[in-house]
Amino acid sequence: MALKEIYPGVEAEGFMLSVPMAGHPILDEPIVKKDYDFLAQLIRNHDAIFLLMDTRESRWLPTVMGKAGGKIVMNAALGFDSFVVMRHGQEDPARPHQELGCYFCSDVVAPADSVADRTLDQQCTVTRPGVAAIASALLVEVFVSILQHPLKGSAPAPSSATEDRGDHPLGIVPHQVRGFLSNFQNLVIKGNSSDGWKFVKRALNEKGYVEELSGLAEVQRAAEKALAEIEMSDESDMIGDDEEPEIL
């Protein structure tokens, strides 16, 4: 009804559902499964998905489902005085393995419960009054640029803000726009999706499953191993310093 007050000709329909979130264990499987099936149906029936949630983990499942369905996925995330607007990459058969990354591709931690034991201002729900409107407007503009591009969702991202627009009438189509109220920059993130409800159920219930599947666990193990080697090297140096000099 609110949308129709702004634009009476709009065709819109609202639904009430809870998005299953990684890091939040399933308490009532039939209800969560019903929400999952309904969300999957909505994503199948639409061409573009806008992610305007207020937690990282609530974006994860629609991101995976949108990628699996080959949909255009648009994402906006807010901080107190900053924001990020981005489009998720779509696979192009003519350019295999060159699609752009998603919101989670460059993360070094898997989505988890970001709400428990945190104050309101730490939950990404407190932001300056103009940030939400700025981010939403930019996201719509990026979406319109995608629709006007010959490659649609597979449009490549520019390597710099000064790159020639080519034949595209609306200019370059950025992968990301990060805003800090006083400035913004275009960034290109290159990154490199899993078995329906069975996959989702394991991701929600099994701690560490997403980390192992995505390779984050291996990255963390490598970092811990490197740290341990540094500590062992320091201990060896200390032992060497304490040794008495040899008299010849």
Describe what you observe in this structure.
The protein is an alpha+beta fold and 248 residues long. It has 7 helices and 5 strands. The protein has a 5-stranded mixed beta sheet, sandwiched between helices. Strand 1, helix 3 and strand 2 form a beta-alpha-beta unit. The longest helix has 27 residues. The chain is globular and about 70 Å long. The termini are far apart.
Entry summary:
Helices cover 38% and strands 10% of the residues. The chain is of the alpha+beta class and 248 residues long. The longest helix is centred in the C-terminal third of the chain and has 27 residues.
Topology:
Elements: H1 2-6, H2 29-44, E1 48-51, H3 56-68, E2 72-78, E3 83-87, H4 131-148, E4 176-179, E5 184-187, H5 196-205, H6 209-214, H7 216-242
Parallel strand pairs: 1-2
Antiparallel strand pairs: 2-3, 3-4, 4-5
Q: Kindly report the average pLDDT value.
A: 81
State the share of residues found in helices, binned by percent. 25-40%
- Structure summary, number of beta strands: 5
Tally of helical runs: 7
Report the portion of residues in β strands: 5-15%
Given helix and strand content, the structural type is alpha+beta
Q: List the strand order in the largest sheet.
A: 1-2-3-4-5
Give the H and E element order.
HHEHEEHEEHHH
Radius of gyration: 23 Å
Q: What is the overall shape?
A: globular
Uncertain runs with pLDDT below 50, 5 residues or more?
189-193
Largest sheet: 5 strands, mixed
Distance between the termini: 94 Å
Query: What's the quaternary structure here?
Result: single chain
